[in-house]
Every structure is written in C-alpha cells, then in structure tokens.
Design brief:
- The radius of gyration is 15 Å and the shape is globular.
- The chain starts with 8 loop residues before the first strand and ends in a 20-residue tail after the last helix.
- It contains two helices and five strands.
- The chain has a single domain, classed as 3-Layer(aba) Sandwich (Severin), CATH 3.40.20.
- By secondary structure, the chain is of the alpha+beta class.
- Helices cover about 20% and strands about 30% of the residues.
- It has a five-stranded mixed sheet, with helices on both faces.
Length: about 140
C-alpha cells in the first residue's frame, strides 16, 4: 500500500493547536485531525490502558483523531497511524505524549467542527476566506 503524498495527503487547516489533513488510500477517504491539547496527559487519554498511564504523565498531550467513514483493515490503520506519527514527530516527545485514536464517522466536517468548537474556533466553513491568505489560519 502506497500513498502519493503529493496527491493523496492534503492539509486542509492549520492552526496553532489543531491541524486537519485529508488522506486518500485504497479508494477510501479519511481525515486526520491533530489536536494539541495544551495540558498534561491524563489517564483518560489512553482508553486502551485499563489502569491509565500512572506516573508517566507528561507536560503536554497531543491527540491525533483518525476518522474514516468505513471500517479499516489492520494494514490501513497501521499506515494511518504511521502518517499521524510522522506528522507529530517534530514535538519534544520526552515532554509530550501523542495518542492516535481511530473513529468511524460519516461526516468529517461535523467531526472537525466538534474539535474546532472545543478549542474555541468557529466552524470550518464559516471561517472567512481571509484566514486562508497565510500559511497558518490563526
């Protein structure tokens, strides 16, 4: 499975604490939304760990939400995990946890809207065009 990063990976939004990417692979469209939580890691950031992360909490937490409208094969999840990992590998991981959460969602714009609202931003489609004149939209 290959992804042509020039054609099949497109950043649609870049803010200081949120980034959204559309990814096409194997005939499936997905969206990766990376959120800098701006807070220390918490046990609930790791839902797959029964007892949480204990004392290994770090100063900041980043969540990469991977949305797909259909179920993904294990190989597709691995590829999307590695893409999300690659998009966040510039942060100081000794001081920051990154989790990747996979979620099935039919309406990617609605998912983006929820995450934007949680960070205090307007809906994506209501952002004025002037916000897109620069490299970063904030």
């Amino acid at each position: 499975m290959n992804i042509d990063f020039l054609k099949q990976l497109q950043r649609i939004l870049r803010l200081k604490d949120l980034e959204a990417w559309d990814v096409a692979m194997n005939g499936k469209d997905c969206r990766i939304i990376i959120v800098d939580e701006g807070r220390p890691s918490r046990d609930e950031d790791f839902p797959w760990l029964k007892d949480g992360i204990g004392e290994d909490k770090r100063e900041n937490h980043i969540t990469a939400h991977v949305f797909s409208s259909t179920s993904l094969e294990n190989s597709e999840e691995r590829m999307l995990y590695h893409i999300a990992e690659h998009l966040t590998d510039h942060v100081a991981l000794a001081h920051c946890h990154v989790t990747v959460l996979f979620q099935q969602e039919d309406d990617y714009d609605h998912a983006l809207g929820r995450l934007l609202q949680a960070k205090g931003y307007p809906e994506y489609h209501s952002m004025p065009l002037s916000m897109f004149f620069r490299f970063s939209q904030d």
